[in-house]
Structures are given as C-alpha cells and as structure tokens.
Amino acid sequence: MKGSNDVSWIKNIQKSITRFIHPNEHEDEDDNNSKGSRFIRSIWSQVQTKNKGKKWWLVTTTGIVITIGLVFAGNEYVNANKIAYYNVYVGDEVIGSIDNPNQIEQLYSRKRQEYQNKYPNVEMTLYTENITTEAEVAFKAEVNSEATLKRLDGMLSAEAEGVELKVDGKVIGIVKDQETVDDILEQLAQQYLPEGAKQQLQVKQMSSSVTASTVSTAQAPESSVKSVKIVEEVAVTPTTVDPEQVLSVEDVTALLSKSNEAPIVYTIKEGDTLGSIVQKYGITEKQVYLNNPDIKEKYLQIGDTLTLTVPKLPITVTTVEQVAEEIVTAPQIEIRKTEELEAGKSKVVRPGQEGLKVMEYIVTKENGQVIDEQWLGQEVIKESVTEVVLQGTKIAGQGSGQFAWPVSGATISSTYGSRWGRSHKGIDIVSGNRTIMASDEGVVTFTGNISGYGKAVVIDHSNGYTTLYGHLSSISVNQGQTIEKGSSIGVMGNTGRSTGTHLHFEIKKNDVAQNPMKYLN
C-alpha cells in the first residue's frame, strides 16, 4: 500500500512540473514566473511532508527541486535580457539595425532639408522607395543606430521634380514647373508688344498653341493689341532629373530667342515686290536668286512661290494690333484763275488752315515683322480751312497745288513712310477702274521705264510739286505735253518690281517725297 502511495505522490509531482513547463496559453509571463515560484515551494513542501524519516527520498527529491529551480531561474534571466529592435533593409540587403523607426523619419526630414537648401530653385524628392524596416526581438541584441543611420545617410539620393519643355516635338530643356513655362512664354510675347502696352499678359496653355488674353494699352486707341498667339505647339511633360539639369527662366528664354537659318516656301501676294520680300526677311536679293535660279522678277505673279533661307526663331509670336495714326491734313486750295496775273504768279486771298484726321489699320506681325496690313478707314478730327488763291492764266501748265485721286474707287494696298519695318516713298493703289488720271494740272516731264517702277509718268506742276505714276501697263501722254487735271495719262499695270496690278503714286515738294494722304481727301 505504501509503494502505491509513493507512486501516486511522484505522479503528482510530474503533473506539477508539466503545468510549469507548459502553462496555459492565456497565462502571461509574469503569471508563469510567479506561479513557478509557488510551484517550487509546493514541491519542496510535499517532499518534506511525504518523506519524513526517509533520507534517500529527501536527497533525490531535493535534487529534482534544485534542477527545476535552475531551469526557472535561467528562463527568467533570458526573458529579462530580450531586446526589441528594427532591422533596416535597402532592397534585400540588411545594412544595420536601429532602436526606433522614427530615427529614419528624422533622417529623411533632415536630408530633404539639406537638398532643398542646396537647390532652392527646384522641388527636390528624396528617393526612399526601396528602404524598409522589420521588427525583431533577440537576447542581448547589439543595436548600433548611429552607425546604421550614418551608413543609410550616405546611400540616400534625391532628384529634382520638373517639366520637359517641347516646341513642335523638339525638346528645348527642363524647367521647374508649368508656372515657369508660362513665365518664359510671357516674356517672349512681351518682346513684341508695342511701346506703352501694359505688361499684363496672361498666357494659357492650349492643345496646339499658346494664346494670350487681349492686352489693353495705356494710350488707346493709338495702339492696342487684339491678340497674341504662339504658332508652334508647346507641350510640357512632368519628369524627374538631376537638379543640375533644370534650367532657369533666363537660360530657356535665351535658347528660344536664338535664331537658326531654315528654309521656307513663300507665296507671292498682292503688293509684293522682290525688294519688299528681302527687306521683310532680312536677306539679300542674291540669296533669293541662288535659291530660285529660274526667277524673273517682272514675271512674279500672285500665287507664285519662292524658296527662301531665312533666320527662324524656335518660337513664332503672332500679334494682331489695331493702330490709329494721326495725320495732319493740308488745307484744300481753291484756285481762282485770273488773266490779271501773269502765268506762274499767284496771290493768296485767304490763307488755309491744316486739319487733322486719324487713319486706322489692323497690322499682323510675326516676331515683330509685319506680314499683313489692312486699312480700316479714316476719321476727320478737324476740318481744314480752304485756302483761296488767285492764279494768273497767261501760261498754261501750272498746277493748283490741290491734288485729286489718280484713280476712281481707289483702295490703298500699301501705305507711305517708314513704319512697321518698311520704307515706302508713296502709296500703292488698286481699283477696278484701271484708268490713271493726272492728279493736278502740269507738264509731262518724263515717260518711259524707271528701275523698279516699270513704265512710269512724271508730271511737273510748275509750283514746286511733281507727281510720279508707276507700274503702268501703257502710257497715253508724251514728254513735254501740258496736261489738265483729271486727264487720262495711261493704264494701271504690273511692270517693274510689282507682283500685281496696281498704281504706285508719289507726290514730291521741292524734290522731297511727301505723304500723299496729306493731300488726298
């Protein structure tokens, strides 16, 4: 019976040891440790009670208790010296460990600020996509956060955010952002605004062009910009690059302001001459002849094409301006002929007074060069006062000084003077009625061909004024002939440097070219 009791007692001790080594899952570590202490005390109490007077049992069980105690103590020591930390990975490689992930975030923040300070004019992005951390717990783990962060610092890199600027598909460069592109286009457009225009362009990106809103002017209606448009397709694409590759506004503006020679095909239009074409594009007649060996100027016709090699900018800014030009008008002259005065003598009986009118044009330019000009009409601001002159009639052929339009139903195709990059000593006139008439009474002093003017007639009005009529197809007067005002002198044509049927008309006073619009009303 006693042997059975000993076996039962030993089984109870085994159960206690098993519960200690394999505690319930819901019991935490502190509970296990405390329970372990109670367990050892319980076993020792059972040994002492059960084995009173049995020394061999006491020795054996004491050894068991001591062994269990050592196991328990070792377990407590390991648990007390476990350290939580984080391994740092760059890709699949562990480069070290740190105490807290916040240390990496602090490194990122400092590094971003360093790059932003170094490149203040661009937006920098720190490259951290391949950096990760993983939590770990180990016995007496050695964690060197400082060394790990230092190594990671040397591996970090950053790129600049920007946009790639393209013009007609050609890459010009990389700039900071869309706003920078807008500033560049605005600066380019501002170069071609008339003086006095307010600098208030609002450039907008379009699918195939860049346009600007209407620009008001401080001195309207003398000059106002109706529209500003960039002809080429301007596109931007977001990108990331080395910050040294990001260009400034000044750098890109300089690139877009640099011209390169490029071939173009030019179509002849009404009013064009070889001289006007070379002047418009800043080239020489020799260059035109080299590119077009079959050209014969006298046969240039509207619709013909010329191959020209001209300087061309990467960006073409087209502006449409409405221009109002004030012109002082000469007074009308009323001639009262009298036989009391010798021919060539006159007497002013009422002085005239000048008037004022405003002529309006729509002028289209490409990069500041006029490509089209339309006369809208004129408005009389102040009427001139007619001058009354008595003129002797003893000798015929002296003009009145009052000029009439040399054709009826006239329309101006090209105006007088050095404006918008052109120099013109007269006006070009087109009309459905091709008959040319003497603008005032006078004596025909020349009929024939003049270089550039083709067939021409010159009339001396014997009062300091002369008139010239160019590009005639035929002449109906002779040199030395006295001609009355309004008499036919020829037919409008296309001779000389002319690309369409029209009349070139000049008025000179004492051999100095005058603006015919000052005298024609």
TrEMBL record:
Alphabetically ordered keywords of this record: Membrane, Signal, Transmembrane, Transmembrane helix
Record has Transmembrane helix as a keyword: yes
GO terms assigned for molecular function: metalloendopeptidase activity
Superkingdom, natural source: Bacteria
G5 domain span: 315-395
UniProt KW Transmembrane helix keyword: yes
Residues passing through the membrane, by range: 56-74
InterPro entries from the UniProt entry: Cell_wall_metabolism_enzyme, Dup_hybrid_motif, G5_dom, LysM, LysM_dom_sf, M23ase_b-sheet_dom
Residue ranges annotated for the LysM domain, each copy included: 264-308
Listed name of the protein: Peptidase
Taxonomic lineage from the root: Bacteria, Bacillati, Bacillota, Bacilli, Bacillales
